[in-house]
Automatic annotation (TrEMBL), chain B:
GO terms for cellular component: plasma membrane. This is Circadian input-output histidine kinase CikA. It comes from Planktothricoides sp. SpSt-374. The keyword Transferase applies. It catalyses: ATP + protein L-histidine = ADP + protein N-phospho-L-histidine. In the N-terminal section; belongs to the phytochrome family. The lineage of its organism: Bacteria, Bacillati, Cyanobacteriota, Cyanophyceae, Oscillatoriophycideae. InterPro entries: GAF, GAF-like_dom_sf, HATPase_C_sf, HATPase_dom, His_kinase_dom, HisK_dim/P_dom, HisK_dim/P_sf, Phyto_chromo_attachment. SMART domains: GAF, HATPase_c, HisKA. Its EC number is 2.7.13.3. GO terms for biological process: detection of visible light; regulation of DNA-templated transcription. Residues 27-203 form the Phytochrome chromophore attachment site domain. Keywords: Kinase, Phosphoprotein, Transferase, Two-component regulatory system. PANTHER family: OSMOSENSING HISTIDINE PROTEIN KINASE SLN1, TWO-COMPONENT HISTIDINE PROTEIN KINASE.
Length: 136, 724
C-alpha cells in the first residue's frame, strides 16, 4: 500500500468540490492528495520533488503569476517547460469538456492527459494516474 | 536674234519681279492688290481690276489699281474706282462666262471706232447671240475671231472705257474671276503684253490655290484648336453637367450661332423622354437665344417634336408620334416619304440643316415659338456612338441683314434689253436674309459632335461601370456585415453553450462527488455525513437554478416568452418587492428604502417582478454596509424619445470596475471571477434582466463610480400614457 501510495497535487479553486475529489482519491486509491489553487505553491511543491503527479483544474479565476492572470493550462505549461519539473505528469481535469476546447487546452498546457468534469468513474481515473506515474 | 534674246530676258526679269512681289504675301487680298498695281504699271493703263464671281454669277471688284491724273495724289482719275462694287450676273451672262472657260485666253476689244484687234471678219455672229451650248460647240478659232457684241460696246462706252483687256482667272478648273485692264482712250496691246498678262493671270491662279490651301489650313487649325479646346473641356474634373454646358457654349460661339441646345436621351429605356431633370432622365442644356414657350405656355421641349424625334431616333425605336399626354395636341406626323428624305439627308450630311425654319413644313408646328426671336435657321446633329443614339445637338442661327453696293441701277426683268446708262454706285440693303452655313462650319459641328458622342459614351460607360462597382462593393459590404453578424451570433451561441456546459458541470461534479462519498460510506461521523448531504443538496439546487435561468434565456431568445403588457400601479408592486427581501435585509443590517413618485407603468407585471427580484438580490449580495434604495419616478430620458418611468436600484456595495461594466450583461460574467464563488448565483441574473427589460420595451443601464463606490442599476420603462 505505502509502496504504491502516490503524492498527488490537486489544483482547484472550488474548495468544496476539491475536498470531495481528494477524499475519493485517497479512500479509493490510497494516495495522498494536497489541494491548492495558488501558483507559487504549485511550483514550490513540484520543485521540492514532493509531488508524483498533478491534477490540474483549468478555470482558476484568482490565479495570478508574475502579474498576469493565468489558467490551469498556463500553469501546466510553465511546469512542463521547466527542465527540473518537466517530468512530473500532469492530468487536466476541466468542465470545459467540449472536444474543441479540450484540443485547445491540451495544446496550450502540454499536459499528459485530459479528464472531463464531473468524474464519473474514479477507478478509471486512478488507473490513468498510476499509468502516468509509471510512464514517467 | 540678239534683240529677241534681249527682249526675252527683259520680259523674264519683269515677270520674275512681278511674281516675286505677288508671292511675298500669302494673303489673297494683298496678292490681288499687288497684281493689279503691277499689271497697271506694266501696261500703263488707267485701271486694272480683279473681279470675282459669286456662285450666282454676279460679281464684285475685289482688287483694283487706278491711275491718277497729274500728281499721284491729285485725286483726279481718268477712270473711276469700282472697288467694292457688285455687278449683276447679267453683266457677264452664262455664255460669256462659258466663253472664258473655253477660250482660257484674252478677250481683247478696242472700242475706239469699233476697232477690234482680234476678230474674224467673215463671221457675223457676236458673242451676244450665242447660247452656252453654242459657245461650247463653237471652235476656239471662231470665238477668238469674232465681232464684239454691240451691247458690250455700248456697255464699255458707258463705263468710259475705250479699250479693254480681260483674262480669266481660274481656281482649279473653275472660273474664279477676271483680271481686266481698262483704258479711257484707245490702246494697242502687243502680243508681248498679252503673254505677260496671261502669265501673270496664271501666277494669280497659283497664288489662289495657295491662298485657298492656306485658308483651308487655317480653318483646319481653327477647327483642331476648337476640338482640342472642347476635348480639354470634356476631360476637365468637373460635374458632367457643367462640362456639357461649357462645351455647348464654346461650340455655339465658335460656329457663329446665336444659340444652341444639347439634348441627351434618357439612359433608362423605360423613362419617358419629355421630362426636364437630371440623372436617369433625359438631360437638356441650353445656351444663347432659344425659342419661346408656345402661346399656351406648355413647357414642351423642341426635342419632343416629331422633327427632332425622327432625327434623333434610336435605331430600334419607332418614333412615337403621340407621346404621353399629347392626345389633344395637333400633330404633323412625318409621312414615310418625308421621313426617308430626312434620313437621306442624315446619311449624307450626318447633320440636318433647315436654312429657313419658316419654309420647312415639318417645323410648322413650332414656327410660332420662334416668331419673337431672330432665329431663322436650324442645324440638328444627332449624336451617336456606334449604333447607340445619345441625343442631339441643335444650333440656331439668326437671320441676317446684307448690304451690297451695286454698280449702277439695273432692272432685273429687263436685263439684256437695255444697257445701263450709269454705273454710279448705290447701296442695296436686304433685311432678314436667310443665314448661310458654310461647309467648314458644318464640318466643325460634325467633328465636335462626334467627339461629344464619344465623350458622352465614355462618360456613360464610366458611370455605368462605377455604378456597378459601387453596387458590387455595396453588396459585398452588406454580405460582409451579414456574415459578421452571423459569425458574431454564432460565436455568442457557441460561447454560451460552452459556458453553460461548464457552469452545469461544476455543480454536477460536486453533487456526484459527495453522493459517491455517501454511497461508498466514506464519512467518519454524523457531522461529516450531514455536511456531505448538505453540499450535495446545495450543489443540486444550484444546478437547478442554473438550468432554470438557461431555460429562461432560451425561451426569450426563441421568442416563446409570453408578454402581457398593461398599465400597472407602481407603488404596490415595489412594496411587494421590498417585503420579499425584508428578512434578508434585517439579517444583514442593510436597510431597504423605497421612494415611489411614479404612479403607474406600462409593463408585464411578472417580468418586471423578475427583474426587480434579480436586481435587489444582487444589491443585497454585494452590499456589506450602508443602504439600498429603490426609487421610481417619471422621467424623460436623454437620447430616447417618449415618456419613461425610471426605476433605480442603488446600493452602497462593492461597486464595479469601470472596465468590467460593459461585460456584466454577458452570460456567466461576474465583476470578478472570484466573486461568483464567494457570492454564488448562476451568473445569468443580469443577462436575464437585460433580455427581459428589452422584451417589455425598456432599457437597463449599469452605473458605478468604480470599485467600492456602490452600484446603480437604472431601468427605464414606458409610462404608457397613450395606452387605453
Amino acid at each position: 500500500m505505502s509502496q504504491n501510495s502516490l503524492r498527488i497535487l490537486l489544483v482547484d479553486d472550488d474548495y468544496l468540490l476539491a475536498k470531495g475529489t481528494a477524499k475519493l482519491i485517497e479512500r479509493l486509491g490510497g494516495h495522498r492528495v494536497a489541494i491548492t489553487d495558488k501558483p507559487d505553491e504549485i511550483f514550490q511543491q513540484c520543485h521540492s520533488k514532493a509531488v508524483d503527479i498533478v491534477l490540474m483544474d483549468v478555470n482558476l479565476p484568482e490565479a495570478v503569476w508574475e502579474g498576469r492572470e493565468v489558467s490551469g493550462a498556463d500553469l501546466s505549461r510553465i511546469v512542463k517547460n521547466d527542465p527540473e519539473t518537466a517530468n512530473i505528469p500532469i492530468i487536466l481535469i476541466s468542465a470545459y469538456a467540449m472536444v474543441s476546447e479540450r484540443q485547445k487546452l491540451m495544446e496550450i498546457s502540454q499536459a499528459d492527459d485530459f479528464w472531463p468534469k464531473p468524474i464519473s468513474d474514479y477507478e478509471a481515473l486512478l488507473l490513468a494516474i498510476e499509468s502516468q506515474v509509471t510512464k514517467h | 536674234m540678239d534683240r529677241h534674246a534681249g527682249e526675252g530676258i527683259q520680259k523674264e526679269a519683269l515677270l520674275y519681279r512681278m511674281t516675286n512681289r505677288i508671292r511675298q504675301s500669302l494673303e489673297l487680298e494683298t496678292i490681288l492688290m499687288t497684281t493689279a498695281a503691277e499689271l497697271r504699271s506694266f501696261l500703263q493703263t488707267d485701271r486694272v481690276k480683279v473681279y470675282r464671281f459669286e456662285p450666282d454669277g454676279s460679281g464684285e471688284v475685289i482688287a483694283e489699281s487706278v491711275a491718277r491724273l497729274g500728281l499721284p495724289n491729285s485725286g483726279k482719275q481718268r477712270l473711276p474706282s469700282l472697288l467694292g462694287l457688285h455687278f449683276p450676273a447679267s453683266d457677264i451672262p452664262p455664255h460669256s462666262r462659258e466663253m472664258f472657260v473655253k477660250a482660257r485666253t484674252r478677250v481683247i476689244v478696242n472700242i475706239s471706232a469699233q476697232q477690234i484687234t482680234l476678230n474674224n471678219l467673215g463671221k457675223v455672229a457676236t458673242t451676244g447671240d450665242l447660247t452656252v451650248e453654242e459657245v461650247q460647240k463653237t471652235k476656239i478659232e471662231d470665238i477668238l475671231q469674232r465681232p464684239v457684241d454691240p451691247c458690250h460696246v455700248e456697255y464699255l462706252t458707258n463705263m468710259g472705257v475705250q479699250s479693254s483687256l480681260v483674262v480669266p482667272i481660274f481656281h482649279g478648273e473653275q472660273l474664279w474671276g477676271l483680271l481686266a485692264a481698262h483704258h479711257a482712250t484707245p490702246k494697242i496691246f502687243t502680243d508681248e503684253d498679252l503673254l505677260i498678262v496671261q502669265l501673270l493671270a496664271d501666277q494669280v491662279s497659283v497664288a489662289l490655290g495657295q491662298s485657298h490651301l492656306l485658308s483651308e489650313a487655317r480653318a483646319k487649325t481653327r477647327q483642331e484648336t476648337l476640338i482640342n479646346q472642347i476635348s480639354t473641356l470634356l476631360h476637365t474634373p468637373q460635374q458632367v453637367g457643367q462640362i456639357l454646358e461649357n462645351v455647348l457654349k464654346t461650340l455655339v460661339k465658335a460656329s457663329g450661332c446665336s444659340g444652341g441646345r444639347l439634348y441627351l436621351h434618357s439612359t433608362d429605356p423605360t423613362t419617358a423622354t419629355q421630362v426636364y431633370t437630371y440623372g436617369d432622365q433625359p438631360q437638356i442644356f441650353l445656351w444663347g437665344t432659344q425659342p419661346q414657350k408656345s402661346a399656351t405656355g406648355e413647357a414642351r421641349l423642341l426635342e419632343d417634336e416629331p422633327f427632332w424625334l425622327h432625327l434623333m431616333a434610336k435605331p430600334n425605336h419607332t418614333p412615337n408620334i403621340n407621346p404621353v399626354g399629347a392626345a389633344d395636341r395637333q400633330w404633323l406626323p412625318l409621312s414615310a416619304e418625308q421621313f426617308s428624305i430626312v434620313q437621306a439627308q442624315l446619311s449624307h450630311l450626318n447633320c440636318h440643316i433647315v436654312p429657313d425654319l419658316y419654309q420647312e413644313p415639318l417645323l410648322a408646328s413650332v414656327a410660332a415659338t420662334f416668331r419673337n426671336t431672330p432665329i431663322r435657321s436650324i442645324l440638328v446633329m444627332p449624336l451617336w456612338y456606334g449604333k447607340q443614339a445619345l441625343g442631339g445637338l441643335t444650333l440656331f442661327r439668326d437671320e441676317i441683314d446684307t448690304e451690297i453696293f451695286w454698280a449702277g441701277r439695273f432692272d432685273p426683268d429687263d436685263r439684256n434689253l437695255r444697257v445701263r446708262q450709269s454705273f454710279e454706285a448705290w447701296q442695296e440693303l436686304k433685311l432678314g436674309q436667310t443665314p448661310q452655313w458654310h461647309p467648314a462650319e458644318i464640318e466643325l459641328v460634325q467633328a465636335v459632335g462626334s467627339h461629344l458622342g464619344m465623350a458622352l459614351m465614355q462618360n456613360r460607360l464610366y458611370q455605368w461601370e462605377r455604378e456597378n462597382r459601387l453596387l458590387v462593393e455595396m453588396r459585398n459590404r452588406e454580405l460582409d456585415a451579414a456574415r459578421n453578424i452571423a459569425e458574431e451570433a454564432n460565436r455568442l451561441k457557441s460561447d454560451f453553450l460552452s459556458s453553460t456546459s461548464h457552469e452545469l458541470r461544476t455543480p454536477l461534479a460536486s453533487t456526484l462527488n459527495y453522493l459517491k462519498l455517501l454511497k461508498e460510506g466514506f464519512y467518519d461521523n454524523e457531522e461529516e455525513l450531514k455536511e456531505y448531504i448538505g453540499v450535495a443538496y446545495q450543489s443540486a439546487e444550484n444546478l437547478v437554478a442554473i438550468i432554470n435561468d438557461v431555460l429562461d434565456i432560451a425561451k426569450i431568445e426563441a421568442g416563446r416568452m409570453n408578454v402581457q403588457m398593461k398599465l400597472v400601479e407602481t407603488r404596490p408592486l415595489l412594496e411587494e418587492q421590498i417585503r420579499l427581501f425584508s428578512i434578508e435585509s434585517k439579517r444583514k443590517g442593510i436597510p431597504l428604502i423605497l421612494q415611489c413618485e411614479a404612479e403607474q407603468v406600462y409593463t408585464d407585471q411578472g417580468k418586471l417582478k423578475q427583474i426587480l427580484t434579480n436586481l435587489l438580490s444582487n444589491a443585497l449580495k454585494f452590499t456589506h454596509r450602508g443602504e439600498i434604495r429603490l426609487t421610481a419616478r417619471n422621467a424623460a430620458a436623454m437620447s430616447l424619445t417618449g415618456d419613461w418611468v425610471e426605476i433605480v436600484v442603488a446600493d452602497t456595495g462593492i461597486g464595479i470596475d469601470t472596465n468590467q461594466r460593459e461585460h456584466l450583461f454577458e452570460p456567466f460574467v461576474q465583476a470578478d471571477g472570484s466573486i461568483k464563488r464567494r457570492y454564488g448565483g448562476t451568473g445569468l441574473g443580469l443577462t436575464i434582466c437585460k433580455r427581459l427589460a428589452e422584451l417589455i420595451g425598456g432599457h437597463i443601464f449599469l452605473e458605478s463610480e468604480g470599485l467600492g463606490m456602490g452600484t446603480k442599476v437604472r431601468l427605464l420603462l414606458p409610462q404608457g400614457q397613450n395606452v387605453v
